[in-house]
Amino acid sequence: MTALTLSTAGAATLRADALVVGVAKGAKGPVVAPGAEAVDKAFDGKLASVLDTLGATGAEGEVTKLPAPSGLKAPVVLAVGLGAVPEKDEAYDAESLRRAAGAAARALNGSKKAAFALPVEAAEDAEAIAEGALLGAYSFTAYQGGDKDAKDSKNGASQAGGSGAKQPLGEVALLGAKPRDKAHKAAAERAIALTEEINRARDLINTPPNDLFPESFAAVATAVGKEHGIKVQVLDEKALVKGGFGGILGVGQGSAHGPRLVKLAYTHPKAEKTLALVGKGITYDSGGISLKPAGHNETMKCDMSGAAAVFAAVVTAARLGLRVNVTGWLALAENMPSGTATRPGDVLRMYSGKTVEVLNTDAEGRLVLADALWKASEEKPDAIVDVATLTGAMVLALGHRTFGIMSNDDAFRTSIHEIAEEVGEQSWPMPLPAELRKGMDSPTADIANMGERMGGGLVAGLFLQEFVGEGITWAHLDIAGPAFHEGAPFGYTPKGGTGSAVRTLVKLAERTAAGDLG
Fold first, then answer.
1. Residue 380 bears catalytic tag
2. pTM for the structure as a whole
3. Measured between alpha carbons, how far is 389 from 485 in angstroms, rounded to an integer?
4. Could you say which of 292, 349, 354, 401 is catalytic?
């Protein structure tokens, strides 16, 4: 785990493997950003000119490494692009700092220590840089290294710490921050808690499905919950049958790994509001009898990203001691074809009592969420937010970096959208058109799990809305696009699991605790 320190040392005097400075894209070439004055002086005021000669422009995420001149203790200077120079009297925005710090940290994998001399005008800037660096330094190496002695005795999967892989940056020393200042110290502590839990979520998403299945996910949640004073309840197959959770059972009945419903309850003695978070946790999605074709199932270990996000958000809320009750519901199942699997045409009786005709077993996420939503509704929270890699239709609509937001309350949807944009998560509000509901009418059951093909992401949202308790404010985040990144890393976003929606959920909990959401 990458360490974070707030340092009062000067950029020229701190000993580190590399010194990170910011460079912006100016009208006539690269412009050295605030924080790098001592470094520029060591280059005789010609750092921008040197970078320009090397072809650097200051474009966002651009990384240029230089040998350090005499006068600097660090042997390497890494200049990272911040994008366009801000307008007069404006500062660099938090997301630009976050992405630049992430790109720099990624480029320094294998180094023990790096000093970050990026622009810091306030505690918020320090927090953004810390977040970006700690997220950018992430790498998943648990299955690399070829350590014969570290193989799991049951399934042969390597559990080594990746001794043969390049390890992440060991320490981030943040210059320009004020370690004795209350706001700066709080910003650093928040960044550490948040990024550690996002990276834990990424680890879960990246873990192969032969090692992460409902029972093992529930075991992780139980252990971590105990560590942070969170009350954890796990419903196994017997409890799910007794409780009548037909949706979760129906999805999981084809797998050798039985389903689970996990409840994580963080409570604060002075809380006035309760927020319920519900996460889709399909630890592997083959599509079931409606089998996915080759080319569409290789990354389906990521179909539990919603549950990972909810888990991370609840733990972060507990670590930060937020003055709000946060309950997380992880609806965990593995969707597999077998002789015991649910068939297209089967009818399931859900926990709510409603019956659902299953027309497509690959539309399974809404089935497990439906049971969890109704269970969460029974506790009458002030609001419910579900998070799920739910539909390919949402990816077609919004692309791979933006999640969709649907809600039964326009003001709540707007608030979540604004929060997501504030914390640097791309999102977009989506409607719930009433006319699409008719497409889910079933001649056999109360509702079908499929409707019109066009607008499929909205149809899924309408299905979920049927299982939200009356009078409860609810929102649905479809993170199918940004949850798992298959392209080259960028900024602080790695290849693989991203931890999408965690920052939005945590900020929502903070706003709820502060009474800012009514």
1. no
2. 0.96
3. 13
4. 292
